[in-house]
Specification:
Number of helices: 4
Radius of gyration: 27 Å
Strand content: 15-25%
Order of helices and strands: HHEEEEEEEEEEHH
Shape: elongated
Largest sheet: 3 strands, antiparallel
Number of strands: 10
Strand order of the largest sheet: 4-5-6
Length: about 180
């Protein structure tokens, strides 16, 4: 009777570890998908490229013991050069927030990667012209109920997939150990 109790306790411990590993894997995979979806929404709202938005959204992964993920956007507002800025006669034409408009009096220096500059009317000093910031857009791009539901659906799929894979690996490992024991030294 005692060996059965020990075996079942060991099986429970293995299952708990397997469950936690599957939860962490499911969260991380669903979190990466959520990061991409958020980046797409932010890029659409701000008139950016998805790559630029995705690079500024930091994803903190779940680990054993801390089964929690975190999405956080950082950074300052972006210069107008990131919004397909073009020099025109009346100023600089750019597409912040997805709509092209002309920034009168602005200009682009003739050197690669140069920012869009505007001369301040009062002080006559040059300053950069900015569009939307990814952190602000991310904060404004609230995660709605449909996006949250999609995240949980994705998490369930990934969690079930991970459970299946980890159980198969554990079963294969136990089978190999049994075969080695039977074969003997």
């Amino acid at each position: 009777m005692a060996p059965r109790v020990r075996r079942s306790r060991g099986a429970l411990t293995r299952d708990a570890k397997l469950f936690e590993r599957a939860a962490v894997t499911g969260l991380n995979r669903a979190g990466r998908t959520e990061r991409t979806m958020s980046a797409r929404g932010v890029a659409k709202d701000g008139g950016l490229r998805v790559r630029d938005a995705r690079q500024k959204i930091k994803f903190t992964r779940a680990r054993r013991g801390t089964t929690r993920i975190k999405l956080e956007a950082t950074g300052r507002p972006l210069n107008l050069t990131r919004f397909q800025a073009k020099q025109r006669k009346r100023g600089v034409s750019a597409r912040p927030w997805g709509k092209r408009r002309i920034f009168k009096g602005a200009f682009i220096l003739k050197k690669p990667g140069a920012p869009v500059l505007v001369r301040d009317k009062k002080t006559k000093k040059l300053r950069s012209a900015y569009g939307p910031g990814i952190a602000n857009l991310f904060r404004d791009h609230a995660i709605g109920a449909d996006q949250r539901a999609a995240f949980f659906r994705r998490y369930n799929v990934e969690f079930n997939r991970a459970i299946k894979v980890f159980r198969e690996k554990a079963a294969a490992s136990r089978a190999r150990r049994r075969a080695r024991r039977r074969a003997g030294p």
